[in-house]
Amino acid sequence: MLEISATLTDEMKKLIENLMRQMGIKDPIEAIRRINSGEWEVRQLTPRWTSLDDGTISFSVTSDGTTGPEWIKRLGKKGFGPSWGACHMLCSSDFKPTNGVKCEIKVLRGKLWYDKDRKTHIIRQYAEICGLKTPNAEIACLVRENFSDDDLSDMGLNWIVTMHRSIENDKGVWCLLMSSRVYREGRWLIDVKAETSRNNWLPEGGFAFIVSQTNKEKEEDGES
After folding, report:
1. CB contact at 8 A, 104 and 60
2. Do 44 and 93 contact (CB within 8 A), yes or no?
3. What is the mean pLDDT of residues 92-110?
4. Which DSSP letter does residue 12 get?
5. Residue 221: what pLDDT?
6. How far apart are CA 175 and CA 164, in angstroms?
7. What is the DSSP letter of 48?
8. 131 phi-psi bin (left φ>0, alpha ψ -120 to 50, beta other)
9. Reduced to 3 states, what is the DSSP secondary structure of residue 10?
10. Residue 162 burial (CB < 10 Å; 0-12/13-18/19+)?
11. Are 176 and 165 in contact (CB under 8 A)?
12. Average pLDDT for residues 101-114, to the nearest whole number?
């Protein structure tokens, strides 16, 4: 019979506590169930983003054809509960998923602008000058799924708002989708006004745009 030492037991306890923290739950049995069911995977930690000298963050994501309603379920199961307004946006006809499109993303840090200049139209103008493109709204879901609240903290950000074309939320307000670690208890995909009430954004966040995008299948086949 396998003997489990006290040291190993302590290490297992730390492992389960770490899993619960990452999942945002307090039930150890549920944490184990999620791992065993395949809802969560344990992977080797590798750098998934790069902080650049120009004050930006770079990473890539690939779409897989997930529809808005499917994203609601998919994110919910992983603890990244979409807000009610975000759910309405994901179910909108303006939310148009793609499949197999690999996007190189650049996140512009809010601290790149003075407070008075951190406005949506100024940020979009700056991005256009830099050759950045408007992302599909699904990028917000891919960002939320791929980066935990701890990841956002390591990036030095409280949130990342995807600068897609605005979509109406449940209150008829034109909004953008934001991955936030400071909304309620964190781990949220939420809807935020495309223009904030003060007409400017706070400096602790980032604004996601597209650098380039390719069809992943053509890329793997070596086509241009």
Report:
1. yes
2. no
3. 97
4. H
5. 52
6. 9
7. -
8. left
9. helix
10. buried
11. no
12. 96
Token code pair at residue 101: 């499109």
Task: State which amino acid sits at residue 16.
Answer: I
The rounded distance, in Å, linking the Cα atoms of 79 and 183 is: 14
Separation of alpha carbons 199 and 195, rounded Å: 5
Tokens 């549920």, located at residue? 30
Find the helix packing angle between 28-37 and 6-23, rounded to 10°: 80
Cβ-in-10-Å burial (0-12, 13-18, 19+) of 125 comes to exposed
Rounded to an integer, the average pLDDT of 197-222 is 79
For the purposes of burial, counting CB atoms within 10 Å of the CB of 170, is it exposed (0-12), middle (13-18) or buried (19 or more)? middle
> What is the pTM assigned to this prediction?
0.77
Q: What is the dihedral sign for C-alpha 47, 145, 218, 59?
A: negative
Q: Which amino acid is at 74?
A: R
Structure tokens at 60: 């890539």
Average pLDDT over every residue of 157-173: 96
Cβ-contact 185, 202 below 8 angstroms: no
Look at strands 159-162 and 205-215 and give their pairing.
Answer: parallel
Token pair of 1 as six digits: 């019979």
Q: Which residues contact 208 (CB under 8 A, 6 or more apart)?
A: 105, 106, 107, 135, 139, 140, 143, 160, 161, 162, 163
Confidence of residue 117 (pLDDT cuts 50, 70, 90): very high
- In whole angstroms, give the CA distance from residue 218 to residue 108: 29
